[in-house]
Amino acid sequence: MFDKILIANRGEIALRVIRACREMGIPSVAVHSTADSDAMHVRMADETICIGPASGAESYLSIPAIISACEVTGATAIHPGYGFLSENQRFVQIVEDHDITFIGPSAEHISMMGDKITAKETAKELGIPCVPGSAGGVATLEEAKQIGADFGYPVIIKATAGGGGRGMKVATSEAEMERAFLTARSEAKAAFGNDEVYIEKYLQKPRHIEIQVFGDGQGGGVHLGERDCSLQRRHQKVFEEAPGPSITASERARIGKICADAIAQMGYRGAGTVEFLYEDGEFYFIEMNTRLQVEHPVTEAIFGVDLVREQIRVAAGEKLSFTQDDLKINGHAIEVRINAEKLPEFRPSPGTISHFHAPGGLGVRMDSALYDGYRIPPYYDSLIAKLIVHGRDRPEALARLNRALGELIVDGVDTTVPLFHALLQEKDIHTGEYNIHWLEKWLESGPLS
């Protein structure tokens, strides 16, 4: 096992890793920017080291600074959390070249799944069902129009190096293709430095279903069911639950086995998420995230496992501590992402927390780095807390979420808590009848005005 682990991240996910390290008896090192010198993850870690100024590019994204921090502190492994450098294959290669263990998959697997076209080709080879679309990158408008004619409209143009909805446009007809194609390429170039795009059939009312997978890099692989992440705003998830309210046990077993077999065949190491669009009983691969997900706590809740602990174990060369037969679903879990944002515009709202009270009680978990007097810096993502609830079934989980939201106090800044109070008044939320377009259409109707 590792002598010391450095966490190359901040906020609640850094705290999450520190807690796992502490339970395993492994000393932790927190890195931080000058803006985060008073952050909770800095207070909780066994050691801390400043790696640069407030700008993420000069601190949490600075590979030389993080490698130097390992050398100074004697850390023998790095946990990347999510975001920042967690899916940067160049970072992973540099870490390994310095004889430091990266707690995650290999640089090869990150590179393979980081390019959307290569990922889709790999998925097909591994037997994972994919959305019909172009065989590779689409270079010209004429080729794009031909693909639209072949598959039928609507189609969606996506950046091959994309994510977070950038470089992504829908064309509902040939007349719209030129604008959508050129705009997607322009956005992709600006966001990722790569204007290559590909085209897929655009599904009308799909749900976003992701399968949690885990491999030990030694031929072992399992799945831990699915999460439904269909409630999204601008392609950003805000409400996640497990198991998915629309997925049957037989569908879960079928797609889960496909994904588990695929990562075992790949020799994949660590946590991963295979993401799908789901419509009319069919799953269509869209991408694989080669890291821990923000929403991993709902999976932990229904399976009773510690995914971060398992990440550390397999990175240290150990085999999975559970088999597929060991993994049984217990109840239902929901997570809501609470951001420091002013509604209804969702405008970032950094500032000082004058009072913070986390909800508690049976089946309630709060992952947050907030405390009274903490100053939320304006330099990073606006996510400030994740509220996770677990119940015997979905109705109990929803009732518990309603109760926990009522107990939560975050004074001093605006937050998205009112969004979830409003959502819990909607019939479709209680019946589970929603898709990836539902939230944006609901917001357009002005319920938060």
UniProtKB/TrEMBL annotation:
Output the Gene3D superfamilies linked to this UniProt entry.
3.40.50.20, ATP-grasp fold, A domain, ATP-grasp fold, B domain
Q: What is its EC number?
A: 6.3.4.14
- This protein's superkingdom? Bacteria
**SMART domains, per the entry:** Biotin_carb_C
Q: What biological process terms from GO does the record include?
A: fatty acid biosynthetic process; malonyl-CoA biosynthetic process
Q: Which InterPro entries match?
A: ACC_Biotin_Carboxylase, Acetyl_CoA_COase_biotin_COase, ATP-grasp, ATP_grasp_subdomain_1, BC-like_N, Biotin_carboxylation_dom, Biotin_COase_C, CPAse_ATP-bd
* UniProt keywords, alphabetically: ATP-binding, Biotin, Fatty acid biosynthesis, Fatty acid metabolism, Ligase, Lipid biosynthesis, Lipid metabolism, Magnesium, Metal-binding, Nucleotide-binding
Q: Give start-end of the signal peptide.
A: none
State the name under which the record lists this protein: Biotin carboxylase
Show where the Biotin carboxylation domain sits: 1-444
Give one GO molecular function term: metal ion binding
The catalytic activity, as recorded, is: N(6)-biotinyl-L-lysyl-[protein] + hydrogencarbonate + ATP = N(6)-carboxybiotinyl-L-lysyl-[protein] + ADP + phosphate + H(+)
- Function (record text): This protein is a component of the acetyl coenzyme A carboxylase complex; first, biotin carboxylase catalyzes the carboxylation of the carrier protein and then the transcarboxylase transfers the carboxyl group to form malonyl-CoA.
